[in-house]
Amino acid sequence: MAFRLSSGDVAGFKVLFCLAILYGLMSIIAYSVIHMKFITPLGLDAPLDRFSESRAVEHVRVLSKEIDGRQVGRQGLREAAEYIKTQLEKMKEQAGPNLRIEIEENIINGSFTMLFLGHSLSLAYRNHTNIVMRISSIDSHDTDPSFLLNGHFDAPPGSPGAGDCGSCVASMLEIARLTVDSGWIPPRPIIFLFNGAEELFMLGSHGFMTTHKWRDTIGAFINVEASGTGGLDLEFFCHAGAYQLGVQPASGSW
């Protein structure tokens, strides 16, 4: 007996076929947007006034391969701090006469209480390291409103920390180098905070914001963090009034 589809079955199969084609096209478009719409990375020989992904990746390689273990309490974390400070000192040597470059290594201590999963948690810490660089014009003052870029160089347990957060440190180092080598004079000071204790409840940031002399000058900041190895940029955290602050990056005022 011959098998024949009813007109309703034929129509149903046509709908399913069209949906499959539509789903396939949408998947291709989504993949291309998420994974293929990136600018061409620049090499190590890129002009000094351009951000070079290759130069940044070299920092990632050193931090995650040459340095063994950047977890709190391990020697690798100390080596990472020294590497970052060395890179910043090189930038200071190359800076033009109209730039003021200030580099500090801060040993932080402190304590605080926080709510974690509905429970009160008290933490005390000592002898953690932050590396701080401030780039400003030669006429700037310590009290001038400033912009902060923050990233951490400690790594999560059991990981070499290439993404979290060697990539953050590498990006910040390349941005700092670009700022110095481009000859641009920032209208407001830029503070680069490389903090050495984020994985343990953000101790490095707490130490900076409670003890550092520049903490009260910060008018805006970006916390550079890793959230995977691919895909679109992700806003990790933002308070309700952030888009009403009136930050003007072109003029450096707020």
From TrEMBL:
One of its GO terms (biological process) is proteolysis. Keywords: Endoplasmic reticulum, Glycoprotein, Hydrolase, Membrane, Metal-binding, Metalloprotease, Protease, Transmembrane, Transmembrane helix, Zinc. Coiled coil: none annotated. Pfam families: Peptidase_M28 (PF04389). Its cofactor is Zn(2+). The chain crosses the membrane at residues 12-34. Residues 130-236 form the Peptidase M28 domain. InterPro entries: M28_fam, Peptidase_M28. One of its GO terms (cellular component) is endoplasmic reticulum membrane. It is found in: Endoplasmic reticulum membrane. It is a multi-pass membrane protein. One of its GO terms (molecular function) is metal ion binding. Belongs to the peptidase M28 family. This is Peptidase M28 domain-containing protein. It comes from Ilex paraguariensis (yerba mate).
